[in-house]
Amino acid sequence: MKRVVMTLSNPFKPDPRVYKEASSLVKAGYDVTIIAWDREEKYPKMETMNGIKILRIHIKSCYGLPLCFTVGLFLFYLRSLFLLMKMDFDIIHTHDFDTAILGFILKKMKNKVWVYDVHDLYESMVKLVSGEKLARIVRYVDSYFQKNADLVFTASQKVKQVVQRNNKNVFVILNTVNPDYLKNLPKYPTFTIFYGGVLSGNRFLLEMLKIAERLGVTYRVAGKGWVDVEEILKKQLGKNFLGFIPHEQIFVELERAHLTFAIYDPRFENIRLSLPNKVFEAASVKTPILVSRGTALAELVESMKIGWAVEYEVRDVENMVFFLLANPKHLKKAGHIGHKIYLKKYTWNFVEQILFGVYPWGG
Predict the structure, then answer these.
(1) Measured between alpha carbons, how far is 326 from 303 in angstroms, rounded to an integer?
(2) Which of 186, 288, 336, 347 lies deepest, with the highest CB count within 10 Å?
(3) Is residue 26 part of a domain?
(4) Which residues form the Spore protein YkvP/CgeB glycosyl transferase-like domain (predicted)?
């Protein structure tokens, strides 16, 4: 049995992409351990979930504050390396740029096979928070990591095209789901827009709050993230602010809502090229989605007919919500057609076969 250690910089509550990959590898006969960073210090230090062994490192840190995060991350690296140097395993599978250094070190020091899972183009995220200068440094370092990895996964074809400049051994593992979550639940009695995910300042969350107020529709939000955004939503939404909820509950909220959205600022490369899991989650429960025009996500949504692309500005989004509020038949049609296309091409079962076919010592 080949042994895999995965690393990630969140507490694995669980992280949906990591959980799907790890569960599939366990099913294929791999022994999988996850080393996760619990910066809230609130989850068990050791746990087994669906055959996956989880080791959480408790180091207090925060969200949305770069310096605080960097100090905590450095301490996480030290503790992780201490564990990894003592562990016996065959493959180190690092998730995203912020744990890639662990894969690089283990490949060089212990000659381990390194799988680098690029969830996002990290340089674009750094540019948003810290500016162009630091983003250029991240781009250089990330390119070096990509060149040295034995195998690279991305979550979209367009991100793959970027990574292929540095490494030809790149495969797309779409961040999709299986259709098990569809329960045929009734919609909420009043028109409801739902968002579940990271709460940050570039995801149209506060803009949608104002749109919902003006149009008199219900707006429900679940997730954690930037403290200032979270506080505004909590204050304005009251009981419709759900905070962090289990992943399974996200699908209940999605299915009962009339509309969801993934409207992110398309000025940033990562947003233009990536395919977040929200479109697949929405399609799995027949709920239409609004996304930003000019992105890979918009191309996917329009090809699946599960939603509509809008400009990243209040007037265009408000006009679209108003139109859908007045013409609910378009929502029902999009949900039905999008779900059918998703079942034919985009469930996790299809992606899992790619994972099995390319993973080191697979099959």
Answers:
(1) 24
(2) 288
(3) yes
(4) 205-349
Angle at 176 between CA 141 and CA 45, to 5 degrees: 65
The reply to whether 313 falls in a domain is: yes
Order of strands across the sheet with 307-310?
Answer: 241-243, 218-222, 192-196, 259-262, 289-292, 307-310
pLDDT in tens, 295-352: 999 999 999 999 999 999 999 999 999 999 999 999 999 999 999 999 999 999 999 9
Q: Percent of the chain, pLDDT > 70?
A: 98
Helix pair 328-345, 296-304: axis angle to 10 deg: 100
| 212-255 pLDDT per residue, tens | 999 999 999 999 988 899 999 999 999 999 999 999 999 999 99
Q: Residue ranges of the alpha helices (H) in 263-327?
A: 269-273, 278-284, 296-304, 314-326
The two beta strands, 307-310 and 3-8, are unpaired
The Cα 254–Cα 310 span in angstroms is 20
159 and 257 part of one domain? no
DSSP type of residue 188: P
Q: What is the pLDDT of residue 114?
A: 98
On whether the pTM is more than 0.85, the answer is yes
Position 66 in a domain: yes
At 205, the pLDDT band (50, 70, 90 cuts) reads very high
Domain that holds residue 34: 3-175+348-358
In this predicted structure, the answer to whether residue 187 has a pLDDT above a threshold of 70 is: yes
Do the beta carbons of residue 139 and residue 269 sit within 8 Å? no
Q: How many domains does the chain have?
A: 2
- Tell me, yes or no, whether 150 and 279 share the same domain: no
CA distances from 39 to 8, 146, 155, 181 (A): 12, 27, 25, 29
pLDDT band at residue 64 using 50, 70 and 90 as cut-offs: low
The answer to whether residues 164 and 222 belong to one domain is no
Taking a C-beta distance cutoff of 8 angstroms, is the pair 357, 325 a contact?
Answer: no
Task: Identify whether residues 235 and 301 lie together within a single domain.
Answer: yes
Give the domain CATH number at 309.
Answer: 3.40.50.2000
